[in-house]
Amino acid sequence: MFPIHEANENELDAAGHWFTVVLNLADKEFQVIDSLRTSGTQSLVLKAHMVCAKIITLWKKYTAKHNGCTVPNIFSYELRFISGYRQFGIHDCGLFTLKAIEFWDGSRLPKFVGSSEVNLRKQVLHQWFTSPTNQADWKSTLCQGSETKGEGAGCSTSMGKRT
Length: 163
Fold this sequence. Notes:
The protein has helices at about 40-65, 95-105, 115-130, 140-145; strands spanning about 1-5, 15-25, 30-35, 80. It has 4 helices and 4 strands.
């Protein structure tokens, strides 16, 4: 899976757009997951083909060094656009790219029906904060400056629960 950031060509200081390209060896295809645009969007088709060409170039460069190994020939893989995975608003592509990477099984993605953008963002933040690999002192970071707001020792450090 390759998360792709596409700069906004019209506004250079704008955030741009995120989508995912998957090299699916089992199905022998490249898959494009974009939560905002469809396969009919010319800029997406062009960028997806460019990304696939770069993946093929790297594949060729590094698999050529493995003599005697059976390496799949990805050069003839078709490009398929995965439909039906839609973000909530214009600024959710990064969040949906992360979720696509987390949940993609090669054939389908979950629909976030009944889940609001805010709740989905809260879930992702909670996963990041409470991950065993998170070495940051996030509790004290979140509480910085809370004394000036009258919260003091009651700073919320447990994801919404007062401590």
